[in-house]
Amino acid sequence: MPTEFVVSRQSSPRTVRRARELRRRVACAEVVLWEVLRARRLDGVKFCMQHPVGPYLVEFYAPRFRVAVEIGGPDCCRRALLALHKVMLVRLKEDEVLRDLPGCLRRIRAALEEPLPL
Q1: Superfamily for 8-110?
Q2: All structural domains of the chain with their residue ranges
Q3: pTM, two decimal places
Q4: What is the pLDDT at residue 7?
């Protein structure tokens, strides 16, 4: 059985510093998506930005639903590790967020509706 992820307050100081730095330098697509996800604007679900989850920083994370949302290319190692620890990853392309935000939100909502793995 995998050990629990180290999240938030339990993360290393280096990981926390890196998360803070990344929050200051966000890409255009991240800004667009964050405007919809922040402050529980998407169906009342709390999302965190540049959140430490285990050894990784995920761009957006809904802790209650264990759903991570990332914008960018594939990273099968990251996806596999997150799946091993029962975190679902929704990977979006930057141009997809900019041209079809409603479609991206449908994919995120679908992930949030999935039952939590046991």
Answers
A1: VSR Endonuclease (3.40.960.10)
A2: 8-110
A3: 0.78
A4: 46
